[in-house]
């Protein structure tokens, strides 16, 4: 399966994730949903979340120009909110999965989708 298929099939087709990307921990976007663009600065900020979770807790994270407040963050996950929507960011062995959701999807529904893909990628060494 290509990285784009992971975004399209495992994330977007669930209906619980509206925008998504997979970025490499060494840099670069591996795949993203149509029109979803993370600037190089946003990509670096996402990667820093996992080395300094307290900074993300204090100032949130920007994705494709939108600021999300960190509801929960640690060295493996960030759950963020913006209005009634939010984001789920999960670190794997070599990548970071980013998923954004809009109402009526709730955080736990979106978190489950992104976490499931994260668990799978970790299980196969990615």
UniProtKB/TrEMBL annotation:
Coiled coil: none annotated. It is found in: Cytoplasm, Cytoskeleton. PROSITE patterns: PROFILIN. Pfam families: Profilin. One of its GO terms (molecular function) is actin monomer binding. Keywords: Actin-binding, Cytoplasm, Cytoskeleton. It comes from the Eukaryota. Belongs to the profilin family. This is Profilin.
């Amino acid at each position: 399966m290509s990285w784009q298929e992971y975004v399209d099939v495992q994330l977007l087709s669930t209906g619980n994730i509206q925008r998504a990307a997979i970025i490499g921990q060494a840099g670069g976007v591996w795949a993203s949903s149509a029109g979803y663009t993370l600037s190089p600065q946003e990509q670096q900020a996402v990667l820093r979340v996992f080395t300094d979770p307290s900074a993300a807790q204090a100032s949130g994270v920007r994705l494709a120009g939108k600021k999300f407040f960190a509801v929960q963050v640690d060295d493996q996950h960030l759950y963020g909110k913006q209005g009634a929507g939010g984001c789920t960011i999960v670190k794997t062995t070599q990548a970071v999965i980013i998923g954004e959701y809009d109402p009526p999807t709730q955080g736990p529904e979106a978190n489950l989708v992104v976490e499931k893909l994260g668990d799978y990628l970790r299980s196969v060494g990615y």
